UniProtKB/TrEMBL annotation:
Catalyses which reaction(s): Eliminative cleavage of (1->4)-alpha-D-galacturonan to give oligosaccharides with 4-deoxy-alpha-D-galact-4-enuronosyl groups at their non-reducing ends
Protein name per Swiss-Prot or TrEMBL: Pectate lyase
Leader sequence segment: 1-27
Enzyme class, first EC level, given as a word: lyase
Pathway terms, separated by semicolons: Glycan metabolism; pectin degradation; 2-dehydro-3-deoxy-D-gluconate from pectin: step 2/5
Species of provenance: Lithospermum erythrorhizon
Keywords: Calcium, Glycoprotein, Lyase, Metal-binding, Signal
Family of this protein: Belongs to the polysaccharide lyase 1 family.
Stored InterPro entries: AmbAllergen, Pec_lyase, Pec_lyase_N, Pectin_lyas_fold, Pectin_lyase_fold/virulence, PEL
EC number of the protein: 4.2.2.2
């Protein structure tokens, strides 16, 4: 997210959010010109975000923790990894165990949509629609995409469950503008979105991105891009994010491998909410995950995000995530040797860190997990950033602040007697895109 060119946009969007009037917009949200369609979409997006917002976020975090505990009560009392037989299913977290043990996953693909957990739990993507099979990796026309291409699939009005005929590398010439009610499902083949533009989820609802690899994304030129069957928009240059979310709600990003993009890997901004990012693998990247782009945009307090079972691997520098205003549940992720900090923020976000494994590098200056910007201690000491059940290795430490958790979500789980952070190796062992074989558990 390049902040500099967003100031205008932010000002304009502020007047859209929470204020039911239509401002005269000249440039908003990377549209060079805002027409009635985009204005209407922005207002619908706001209404959807307000509906998706949960006034009691602790309910969601408690429920999530309960489900993790249920799974752990089963086979996996220990971090020791059992020997696995060919074709055996070893789903180790509640999202995966919801679908991965079904050997018929390829004919029951849409069951995946029942498996979202955390704040994005209401996301069904294209479950209500037909299957669309992408057969053509090309991306030659942003205004009139060829049937069979990914771009043609994502602009359709109807819900669609989008899959791929075979393995392919898709180099997008322009950002991919994804419409509401879509699932992109790369299971069974190897799909890479690489060497071109990334994915944009803007002012839309209900999108699942699953089982693909996104890397080496670069800024791409703007111009006229079709963002739905009925609408073309004039876009400015895109930033080079792997996945950019802007005023979106109910989005679930699961088992996606992301690396080496020129801007962020996941940037969720401008009132995006009801988002779950799970089972993803992040590598070799500077600004990994941004949740809120501006301290001046208080409307991001609607933002509610679950970050679970991800692996932040080698070469990740900072922002895992970096948060503003919202409520972020960071649970059972694996952090390995961040190069600046792991979890950061400004503008008093609420950050609940539970059962993560934080392994610091050997550098004595890089032991702290947390990082606060633009605030003196007298101010940030009131921000609620709490750590519970986290495992700290090699001197890592989490600087807590703010009120203790109201009801400790782990309290009712004490009977299970496990140390959550120690399970992270098992919970995240298959993070990133999976290699699923037809007629076998995945
Ligand atoms: C877990 O592993 C340790 C050592 O690896 C072992 O002593 C312990 O009994 C195991 N616990 C369970 C519940 O299997
Ligand atoms: C998405 O699907 C839901 C349910 O079918 C429908 O109510 C909604 O209007 C759709 N959204 C858009 C933007 O088409």
């Amino acid at each position: 997210m390049a902040l500099n060119n967003k100031n205008v946009i932010i000002l304009l969007f502020v007047s859209v959010l929470f204020v039911p009037r239509i401002p005269s917009l000249h440039a908003v949200a990377n549209y060079a010109k805002v027409d009635e369609v985009v204005q209407k979409r922005a207002q619908d997006a706001l209404a959807a975000a307000q509906k998706a917002y949960n006034p009691n976020p602790e309910e969601v975090t408690d429920d999530f923790n309960k489900q993790v505990a249920e799974i752990l009560k089963g086979d996996h009392q220990n971090t020791t990894r059992r020997q696995m037989k060919e074709g055996e299913c070893l789903a180790t977290n509640p999202i995966d165990s919801c679908w991965r043990c079904d050997p018929k996953w390829a004919t029951n693909r849409k069951r995946l949509a029942d498996c979202a957990r955390g704040f994005g739990h209401g996301t069904t993507g294209g479950q209500a629609g037909e299957i669309y099979i992408v057969t053509d990796p090309s991306d030659n026309s942003p205004t009139d995409p060829k049937p069979g291409t990914l771009r043609h699939a994502v602009i359709q009005e109807a819900p669609l469950w989008i899959i791929f005929k075979n393995s392919m590398v898709i180099t997008l010439q322009h950002e991919l503008m994804i419409a509401s009610n879509k699932t992109i499902d790369g299971r069974g083949v190897e799909v890479r979105i690489a060497y071109g533009a990334g994915l944009t989820i803007q002012f839309v609802q209900n999108v699942i991105i699953h089982g693909i690899r996104i890397h080496d994304i670069k800024p791409a030129s703007g111009g006229m891009i079709r963002d739905s069957l009925a609408h073309l928009g004039l876009r400015t240059v895109s930033d080079g994010d792997a996945i950019s979310l802007f005023g979106a709600s109910n989005v679930w990003i699961d088992h996606v491998s992301m690396a080496k993009c020129s801007d962020g890997l996941v940037d969720a901004i401008m009132g995006t909410t009801a988002l779950t990012i799970s089972n993803c693998k992040f590598n070799r990247h500077n600004d990994v995950m941004l949740l809120g782009a501006s301290d001046g945009f208080g409307e991001d307090s609607i933002m509610q995000v679950t970050v679970a079972f991800n692996r932040f691997g080698r070469g990740c520098v900072q922002r895992m995530p970096r948060c503003r205003y919202g409520f972020v549940h960071i649970v059972n992720n694996d952090y390995s040797q961040w190069e600046k900090y792991a979890i950061g923020g400004s503008a008093h976000p609420t950050i609940i860190s539970q059962g993560n494994r934080f392994k610091a590098s050997d550098d004595l200056a890089l032991k702290q997990v947390t990082h606060r910007d633009y605030a003196a201690e007298s101010e940030w000491k009131n921000w609620q950033w709490r750590s519970e059940g986290d495992l700290f290795l090699n001197g890592a430490f989490f600087q807590e602040s703010g009120a203790p958790l109201k009801q400790s979500p782990l309290t009712n789980l004490n009977t299970i007697q496990y140390k959550p952070g120690t399970f992270v190796g098992s919970l995240t062992r298959d993070a990133g895109a999976l290699s699923c074989k037809v007629n076998q558990p995945c």
